[in-house]
Design goal:
Blueprint (H helix, E strand, L loop, with lengths): L9 H16 L3 H14 L4 H13 L3 H14 L4 H13 L3 H14 L6 H27 L2
Helix pairs in contact: 1-2, 2-3, 3-4, 3-5, 4-5, 5-6, 5-7, 6-7
Pfam family, one: TPR_6
InterPro entries: SRFR1-like, TPR-like_helical_dom_sf, TPR_rpt
Protein name: Tetratricopeptide repeat-containing protein
């Protein structure tokens, strides 16, 4: 199936995405970023490309850019578990614990049988986020006594 905007076929885009993922896995974030930026321009309706860009930004501690990319991915596909888990991690690192916990919980809800490895990570992170919230509440409660 050709992309009507530029004549590129789905298999060609998939091949580029796989190449970009390999660069990401090797830690060559500059090459991976270049490929996924190109793919976003060629097919702006594909959430995976935004999720991949967000993951690259997260790996390079560019948290605002990562958050923006994950938000865009979730606008395109609200059930993108990878985008949810990674956005939750960004939010956690930014100190937005409640929203992070909500992202993790949504990701867990998408995989009730716990088949996706991301779900395990989400379950661990939601537990840590909730523990942090509870500790903060206990601390605030102790200060008022």
């Amino acid at each position: 199936m050709a992309n009507p905007d530029n004549g590129t076929t789905g298999p060609e885009l998939l091949e580029r995405a796989m190449e970009g993922f390999e660069f990401y896995e090797q830690g060559d974030y500059a090459s991976a970023r270049s490929i996924f930026e190109e793919l976003c321009a060629r097919d702006p309706r594909e959430a995976y490309y935004r999720t991949a860009l967000g993951a690259i930004c997260l790996a390079e501690d560019e948290l605002d850019q990562a958050l923006d990319n994950f938000n865009q991915a979730l606008t395109l596909n609200a059930k993108d578990a990878a985008a949810l888990v990674n956005r939750g991690e960004v939010r956690l690192r930014l100190g937005d614990i409640v929203d992070a916990a909500q992202d993790f919980a949504r990701a867990v809800d998408l995989d009730p049988e716990n088949k996706d490895p991301l779900t395990l990570r989400a379950r661990l992170l939601v537990a840590a986020a909730l523990e942090t919230i509870e500790a903060a509440q206990r601390s605030a409660h102790a200060e008022w006594k």
